[in-house]
Design a protein that fits this description.
101 residues; alpha/beta; three-stranded parallel beta sheet; 4 helices; 3 strands
Length: 101
């Protein structure tokens, strides 16, 4: 399986802000413990945006090179404590991304 962080929101700006916030916290927390890729690399590996953008990122022709046979382990809650918000993003992903691939 391919592990992927997911930062999705109907407002793509909110999704991007969340990704920056979470990844900044991750990078800071990992300092001195493990080699962490640059933030730009982490952003490129994550799925970030609204449903349309995330579907485009998952498309096999996208430079991210997802394949239709990939099995993804999706990580929605990384460094996030608002359970209802996380569940809402998961439902949004399922209904607007998975249901339309």
């Amino acid at each position: 399986p391919r592990t992927v962080m997911v930062f999705i929101d109907p407002d793509s700006k909110k999704a991007t802000q969340l990704a920056h916030f979470v990844l900044d916290a991750y990078i800071e927390a990992m300092k001195g413990t493990a080699q962490v890729p640059d933030k730009a690399v982490l952003m490129e590996r994550a799925l970030i945006g609204d449903a349309v953008q995330v579907r485009e990122q998952l498309h096999p022709d996208n430079p991210r090179r997802f394949h239709t046979d990939d099995r993804l382990m999706l990580w929605f809650e990384f460094n996030q404590l608002d359970n209802e918000a996380v569940k809402g993003r998961m439902k949004y992903f399922f209904n607007e991304v998975v249901g339309k691939l």
